[in-house]
């Protein structure tokens, strides 16, 4: 199959990057195959060859974002658990460092539009759930490691994961839907305080074991 | 003006309740003046008399939800700060006690659709910001009172408010967009742990003052 060859993979990568740019520019409502084709040097036919529907393209795009996230996180494997958690929080709030601030919030606005379709679209829901559970598992692994090496106190890692994920999701959505530009930075500060005062084992406040 | 008379107020209240039912049933995308008129014993003309546009009606509805929230919160003024905070968390996650569970999540789905319009609609953004800031001020007031009466430790109330609001917003949206029905209850558990372990002054872990 063409999609398994190197060329197919390169083309798919190019389509994903073009989708990314088109989403940031025009939003989800205005995303058309033509708008994506305009963002790279291929025709609409090439996109249709790889993705039958706009839905299939969007599901592939959510998968692409998840893979980018996983690669981004893997780099950081050597750092301490609390540093890794703070880096994860920053990445999930403001995007990976190589992306511009402007594009990140445009992308978040487009993803909110995709998410809003999810109650009516099983494929979106399935892929968003996969993304959620991957990030959740990443947080749980970091917290477990932190408990094991004594960085964090004894705490249910799932509770921490739920807190972080819901908080970051809510913050990203408030940031693009309210007349305030401080929610994301305030949230980073709040979560830093949670990590420092709640998660991190404090010398003076150790619990009796 | 008709809208200031008792009859006008009653009609507006009836329109708001009809809007509530229509939103829960059909979602925001399918919300029409006819669908609202079908939910009560008045004609479309009555609705148009009070609200020129669907946008004006939706802004009034967001205001109506905010007022319902404020009335709901005021009842609880006598309880301890930590109980009031836990009640607030429960109400914001699962709706006020008199609303059915089903309707609550249908409403949350419709409100997500309204919120998704906010980046492109200044009136929605303005009203959603007002709602956010009212809930924020409510949390700040409870935390300040809790610090004063010794229930909570010395903590920046604004940081707590940001954490709670983003977390609750993210949880409500995950609850209606993921293939999981446990995010809201998990979030309640997480925030209860935050209140118990992070906010509440612990006898054994008092900070030096």
UniProtKB/TrEMBL annotation, chains A, B:
Keywords assigned by UniProt, alphabetized: DNA-binding, Repressor, Transcription, Transcription regulation
Superkingdom of origin organism: Archaea
Molecular function as annotated in GO: DNA-binding transcription factor activity; transcription cis-regulatory region binding
DNA-binding region listed in the record: 32-51
Domain HTH tetR-type: 9-69
Alphabetical list of InterPro entries matching this protein: BetI_C, Homeodomain-like_sf, HTH-type_TetR-like_transc_reg, HTH_TetR, Tet_transcr_reg_TetR-rel_C_sf
Cited PROSITE patterns: HTH_TETR_2 (PS50977)
Protein name: TetR/AcrR family transcriptional regulator
Source organism of this protein record: Natrialba swarupiae
